[in-house]
Amino acid sequence: MSTGRLIFAADFADVDEARRASLALQPHLGLVKIGLELFVGAGPQALSWAREAGLPVFLDLKLHDIPATVERAVDRAVALGARMLTVHAGGGKEMLARAVRRAEAAGDTCTIVAVTVLTSLDDADLTQLGIDAKPDAHARRLARLAFDQGVRAFVCSPEEVATLRVELGPMATLITPGVRPEIPGLPGATFNAGSAKGSDDQKRVATARDAIARGADYVVVGRPIRDAADPVAAAASLDQSVREALAGRA
Ligand SMILES: O=c1ccn([C@@H]2O[C@H](COP(=O)(O)O)[C@@H](O)[C@H]2O)c(=O)[nH]1
Known about the structure:
Orotidine 5'-phosphate decarboxylase; Aldolase_TIM; pyrimidine biosynthesis; decarboxylase; single chain; OMPdecase_bac
């Protein structure tokens, strides 16, 4: 029995590949995340197989547009059966409020999730963007803004999940990508396989165990499962780490 807290990022170009990989992993998953690559390539078909298999979909389109455009996109995502839909918290108050209201009006089957600070950004990136705050403080500010508009689910890195939990309390659902496998024998240390080669773009990372121990509700994992020699074993092991961390929290 899975914890239901592991979200697999099905980052594939091909729907059949995404379907095959995700269905093999399904016993260990809470949701499958359909992101830009698959959705831009395949449109609604990117989700239909998951709906048929009873695998809830986290539709990660990170909407960032004017309020009227976002609320119409929310309608379309609800019609496709998405269980969760991401919008950028930086889209501002009105966009966030209207996205939440539209999802509620459309039957409340789809949770609006606000993305705070992308896990691929660090202090230097924020400075370049003219943001005079550390990722932790900026994520807290964006999350508070979104929470005050009615958003109750958030994407953040494992590095600020504890801060957001204190800021937002138990009502918030905290979802953390930037999860990397642990180095055997070195609890807490992450094995960021691609980083030595410069091919892994995640900058604010932790293990699934640490993310959950710090208060995350879900962990999102893509490449460490997708590219593993044995993806099912990788997912099973990540879900076991989640289980142990949850037990440690109780
Ligand atoms: O801040 C964010 C928001 C979303 N993501 C998405 O999560 C997965 C992570 O994949 P990995 O291969 O495990 O790095 C990916 O689909 C991103 O689009 C994120 O990483 N950070």
